[in-house]
Description:
By secondary structure, the chain is mainly alpha-helical. The protein has one domain (2-114). 82% of the residues lie in helices and 0% in strands. α2 (32-48) packs across α5. It starts with a helix and ends in an 8-residue tail after the last helix.
Amino acid sequence: MEMFLGYVKAFAIGGLVCMIAQILINKTKMTSARILVMFLLLGVFLELIGVFKYIENFAGAGITIPITGFGSTIVKGAKEGAKIGLFEAVTYGFRNMAGGLTAAIFFGFFFALIFRSHSKKA
């Protein structure tokens, strides 16, 4: 039952994040790219003030899978590297996000080989 509740919480929080993004797309003139950057910076901000870990403990993948988790991961690495030096603050942030970025590039390329893009009919 506990595992099922974890799935429900992840779905609810992840759905809430996506719902907020969809409302911003529909009700504002913000582009999808700006909304993505806003959510990335939200993840950075929440990690910097120390709130992200509490949301992550509650929601699990519901908050770490969207772009907010990417921002949090960068900051975690940068904070870890900053204890060593300025150069490490930058490189540790990139080191933490390397796996996710590599997977995104690989799967993007892979699916681009399989599927053909086309314009939407208005």
